[in-house]
Amino acid sequence: MGRAFEYRKATKLKRWGHMARTFTKLGKQIAIAVKAGGPEPENNPTLRAIIATCRRENMPKENIERAIKNAMGKDQSDYKEVPYEGYGPHGIAVFVDSLTDNTTRTVADVRSVFNKFNGNLGTQGSLSFLFDHKAVFTFKMKDGMSMDDLILELIDFGVDDEFDEDDEEGEVTIYGDPKSFGDIQHYLEQNGYEITSAEFTRIPNNLKDVTPEQRETIDKMVEKLEEFDDVQNVYTNMKPAED
Asked: What is the pLDDT of residue 1?
């Protein structure tokens, strides 16, 4: 398939890191969704989408319920979505998505990693032209489903005309305009598609070749960034390693 799916396949399992950090990151997403749309999933499509992702990541039900309850507490901190952009070693572009209740702490943490690896943290928006921001939906296939017809229906929502089918899992992944996240989700739900994951991602426009030694250094930088609880995802324009 296209570059989006090649890149996503290579980064799908490694971007979240350790399970405990995964649950912490998902808990923050739940907090934002609850504060924005309330604690009832049936009335909060964003929360429904996050819960689907939680289940896909094997987050226990009690953890999900606890995160929703905590988000309703009066002393619950407000999280902000803050992106950080810059160049890492060997000229690789690095885009960091964060959810933080303390931007001073987060920018200091992120900058320390860039500095450690001789990188350069830039200003917000400085590298956005290198990445496409996409809404990503993975859902169960239906008997007799025609992907061509489905994509044709969703074109009006800014859905891309390429998709990825996972026959082993019986699932399909589509990409679309982030601004149409709610509309795409509504369409899939209203037409009986079981959504197993719904999220946002950033796909590099051009992938850059690196040597094995360079890849090792860049991977170490990404791992260091992902260790911070405030960091949700880290994206680079490094070409994925071949199987």
From this structure: 44
